[in-house]
Design brief:
Blueprint: H1 6-27, H2 29-37, H3 59-64, E1 78-83, E2 93-97, H4 98-114, E3 122-125, H5 133-145, E4 148-150, H6 157-167, E5 171-174, H7 176-188, H8 193-196, E6 201-204, H9 211-221, E7 224-231, E8 236-242, E9 249-251, E10 256-261, E11 275-281, E12 292-298, E13 313-314, E14 319-320, E15 325-327, E16 330-332, H10 334-343, E17 351-358, E18 361-370, H11 372-375, H12 379-397, E19 401-407, E20 421-423
Parallel strand pairs: 3-4, 3-5, 5-6, 6-7, 17-20, 18-19
Antiparallel strand pairs: 1-2, 7-8, 8-9, 9-13, 10-11, 11-12, 12-14, 15-16, 17-18
Helix pairs in contact: 1-2, 4-5, 6-7, 7-9, 9-10, 10-12
The structure holds zinc ion.
Amino acid sequence: MNFKSREEILEYQNKKLRCCVEYASKNSRFFKNILKNFDLTPDDIKSIEDLQKLPFTTKNDLRDNYPFGLTAVPMDEIVRFHASSGTTGKSTVVYYTRNDLDTWSDLMARVLSTTGLTKKDSMQIIYNYGFFTGGFGFHYGAERLGISVIPTGSGNTKKQIEIMRDFGTTSFTSTPSYAIHLGETAEEMSIIPEKDLKLKIGVFGGEPWGEGMRQRIEELFHINAYDNYGLSELCGPGVAVECTEKEGLHVWEDYFIMEVIDPKTGELVGEGERGELVFTPLWKEAMPIFRYRTRDISRVFKEKCNCGLHFRKIERLHGRSDDMLIIRGVNIFPSQIEEVILENPIFKGHYSIIVERKESLDTLTIEIEVTKDLFTGNLKDLIELKEKVEEKLNNVLLVKANVRLVEEGAIPRSQGKAQRVIDKRNIGGIK
Ligand SMILES: [Zn+2]
């Protein structure tokens, strides 16, 4: 749908919200209970402002109702299940009707076309096809747009590069950390992107990544790299994406109402302030959900985008509030550490963050890979480099960080989400 102003979007959201409340109050046992417990009727929620009368839905609600407690349709209407990995507890299950899958495909087609992709392109889907939503989300969106889909799935790095070369692939999607690994493998194979590959666009997500990482990926492949955002509890990818301006991600506000809250108080933050993103999807049949707390921290940009879209933009994500490390009382996002590392072109983006507790004091050690030449070269250069990075990190994090430079290949590679943080403190509640 083509919106000409914010007012038009808001009017549309209010109308859709009333439909969703009406629908969920009839069909979702979970939502009926909420209304009952909060002494509300569907008529009490007529506009975005009224939404605040409803409680948040959290990942715990999904876990408590595992696996099918949030359904609003009979089982025979459900055509797909996805689930989160469950690395931090019981997995959360999401279900889709035929219409849900259709809408999700439309949302993903829109994501891809916003980055400049068209039916003339081909896309290698380098995500795992399974319970994880990345593979199928991109697959269906690309097909919907008419892109030639190359469903390689994750893994088998060299083969991925060969296919890129042989098929003349023009775009791909993967986690950003795996994209770097792919690019380095291509280098090792003596593949020259400008000559041997036809790639022009990459769309990445699934883990937080900053501008340094974007630059690295763009240099490795000679492509434009775009960030996209979504989460499995809402649908998977398909909630927001960067346009070609690369300054924030447009949220599909005709399909999602977005709120930004203070994660401690649950109150809405002021305009443009940073807080936790909360979404209410306006289209779900199998699993209607209201005010879902994402744990993701971002802020809404006030400025209008040059690309002409009226959907508001959010800042690229610093990380999940779950990912946040509390070290000696200071809040630290792994992405802040990554930014510092990737600012220096000597580093290729392979690092680990190790948190330990020694004599009841937290210590932070960052292991960063350097090339073999540098590692076995002049010790003085190595010490200088280490001290330079330590100083920069201390300035940014306000906590002392010890840097340990390690030889190329010392940090294990991952084919999906990179395991950056190793927290050895073993304290409940804090990762
Ligand atoms: Zn834009």
